[in-house]
From TrEMBL:
It holds the Pfam family Zn_protease. Residues 50-162 form the Retropepsin-like aspartic endopeptidase domain. It comes from Polaribacter cellanae. Signal peptide: none annotated. This is ATP-dependent zinc protease. One of its GO terms (molecular function) is peptidase activity. One of its GO terms (biological process) is proteolysis. It comes from the Bacteria. Keywords: Hydrolase, Protease.
Amino acid sequence: MKAIFKILILIIFIFKFTISFSQKNKDKEIIGQKVTIKIKGTKTKGAKTKAAKIKFRARVDTGAKTTSINAKNIKKKGKYVKFSIVNRKGKKISITKKIIDERVVFNAEKKEKRIFVYLTLVYKKTSRKVLVDLNDRSTSTYKVLLGRNWLNGKYIVDVSLK
């Protein structure tokens, strides 16, 4: 009798947890580990500068706290930093942003000092300003690594989705 009672309590608990979890996450979009995003910046042709967007195939990394982007030609100028981002197809845009932070980041290979800036990332039709670190990801398959700060309660990652 006690065993049946315990099983019944367990079933009720699982049922309540499932309902609570689904209600809590009903407004979150389910995404896969790999998504296509656009980054807003500027494109310079001669003396002309215009707004531009560049597409990236990005990898979602729930283990990474902050989003990381492949940045080249990083040049600090006082409180600002100028850098270029290049996608897999070789499309390139230059961006100048205010430096938000500089900190030491530890990864599997080494520790290094990185610059953090806010960039506008566009996923589908949703545009959000996100803190990103500038990093040489030229040898990485994915030039953008989307961290938990990008997920930020908006998405649930389903690793079985492609």
